[in-house]
Amino acid sequence: MGTRVYIETWGCQMNLHQSEGIAGVLEQAGLSVVDRLEDADVVLFNGCMVRGKAEEKLLGRIGAVAEEKRRRDVLLGVGGCFGQIHGDGLFRRSKSIDFVFGTRQHGALPGLIETARERRASLLSAEDDASLEETPFRRSGAVTAMVTITEGCSNACAYCIVPRARGPMRSRRPEAILAEVRGAVQAGRREVLLLGQNVNAYGRDQPDVGGFAMLLGRVAGEGPARIRFTSSHPRDMTQEILDVMAEHGNVCRHLHLALQSGSDRVLAAMNRGYRCDAFLRIVDAARRTLPGINITTDLIVGFPGETEADFEETLAVVRNVRFGSIYAAKFSPRPGTRAAALIDTVTSEEKEARLARVLEIERAMAAEENARCIGRTLVVLVEERAKDGRYVGRADDHRTVVADGCARVGDLVGVRILGSSASALTGTMESPAP
Predict the structure, then answer these.
(1) Which domain, by its residues, includes 63?
(2) 364 vs 386: CA distance, rounded Å
(3) What does the pLDDT read at residue 358?
(4) I need a labelling partner for 276 at 20 to 30 A (CA). Which of 57, 163, 265, 285 fits?
(5) Residue 137 lies inside a defined structural domain of this protein
(6) Is 279 found in the same domain as 150?
(7) Cα torsion at 32, 80, 237, 319 (round to 10°)?
(8) pTM
């Protein structure tokens, strides 16, 4: 029996997609990927550093593998952004870790695993650029194909560790992206998710490839039933991108646009590169160009120096825009970032209270907006079947829909919306959708 590897992932969709690449590399080298830690000879943790909570969870999981190692011979490798930032220092934090790997050069993992059988080893490759074109992917989803278009980030947001963990932004060649999209469509994937830390800055590092609007239009022409993209930086959002979204019916009417704060003073301290009035102009342009578009966002509460007045300005923007959903988090200092050197003036209790207020407003608004969908028929892409026999999917604007009826995973179906909550819509399938 060959070497069996279990992969566990924390963090963003970029991390999830990179785990698909790790799995593809390992299988190409003759190793097998298994679904349970208990069945593995090698355990890989692809870790996140964006939030302190993800880091804490990963350290807890390392402890769980330490228990497993007491019962049998199993190797533990820790990598991703977590491995890239902490490096060899992880060996001092846990004797259970056998090897450390970074955010790139996944092609070297099979050899690193063999080296680790004899001694501890690390592979840290922030400077050594692995080609974005060479990774084979073992796609984990039957419906959605994640396709990387940029890697890394050249912004310098004060709180963000991504540039340090993944290096400057690098754009893939459009021909390679389109070939991957074409292959995914031919393999039966109904949806393509374009990924990057900053997708709408695509091409800034390679002026000859064109910009994101051009790429989005060309991807739409390859024929996937649906196209989504994340994440977008407000500073790089253009009317041209919105026009391409409106021109192509298979580009989803959903825009994830990270606000982070509604205070101009805090945005400047974060080095976000825009003011609130500019953000609101983008929102107005999006809703004018794409009526009914669902705009979602990220927020950080309790950034160093954030006053109660600053926080109230954030709440005012939230109420004004009426985001479809908000991914909110308390500020946690990340090592090596500019914000980590700032005096944390907001107490843990204040952060917790502010987070609770944001989430309370978000739930109330989401419930109100979802209730407006009752009585409508929405086109839903079926993603899975729930344990109760109903089907779960997403509407064109990315709202979750749970429906009764008869369908297959990957079908586009019309669903008559009969009920709603803050988190989902419910209904009954009426007819297949084109």
Answers:
(1) 4-123
(2) 26
(3) 98
(4) 163
(5) no
(6) yes
(7) 100
(8) 0.90
